[in-house]
Design goal:
Layout (H helix, E strand, L loop, with lengths): L2 E11 L2 E6 L10 E2 L2 E3 L6 H13 L2 E2 L3 E9 L4 E9 L1 E3 L9 E5 L14 H12 L6
Parallel strand pairs: 1-7
Antiparallel strand pairs: 1-2, 1-4, 2-3, 2-9, 5-8, 6-7
Length: 136
């Protein structure tokens, strides 16, 4: 089975993270996610993320910093998600190519339905924010 490489942005501002809801008619429609998309053959993961965030949200981000890589096997495909921390440098996030967006605190992330592959990232972000003791 082919591996699909995806770059996803963990966009942060004021202690909150930007999440986006997937549009109807796409794989995992209705789930929330950290915005991003599939890497094209001729681009780096950083270029992919910057392009996808502009297409989906209408924003330009600073230089993305690698955070975690998660590989997940779905019945129909294998996805390798490259998560990057970044901040908006230009523009204001709008749901251009997604259903809706929200800025949420780390402790609010579990209230949203994310794809299974994102669970490890949500756990890691909560650990980073609050340490081993969990939510404050």
């Amino acid at each position: 089975m082919k591996v699909i490489e995806v770059a996803a942005g963990i966009i942060h501002h004021g202690g909150r993270y930007l999440i986006a809801r997937r549009k109807p008619g796409v794989h995992l429609a209705g789930f929330w996610e950290f915005p991003g998309g599939k890497r094209e053959a001729d681009e780096s993961l950083t270029e992919c993320l910057q392009r996808e965030l502009f297409e989906e949200l209408g924003v330009r981000v600073d230089l993305p910093i690698p955070y975690r890589v998660v590989r997940h096997d779905y019945p129909e495909k294998i996805v390798e998600l490259h998560f990057f921390r970044c901040a908006i440098e230009e523009g204001e996030a709008e749901p251009v190519d997604c259903e809706e967006i929200r800025w949420v605190l780390p402790e609010e992330l579990p209230r949203f339905e994310f794809p299974p592959a994102d669970r490890a990232i949500i756990d890691a972000l909560q650990y980073d924010a609050y340490g081993q003791g969990g939510v404050r």
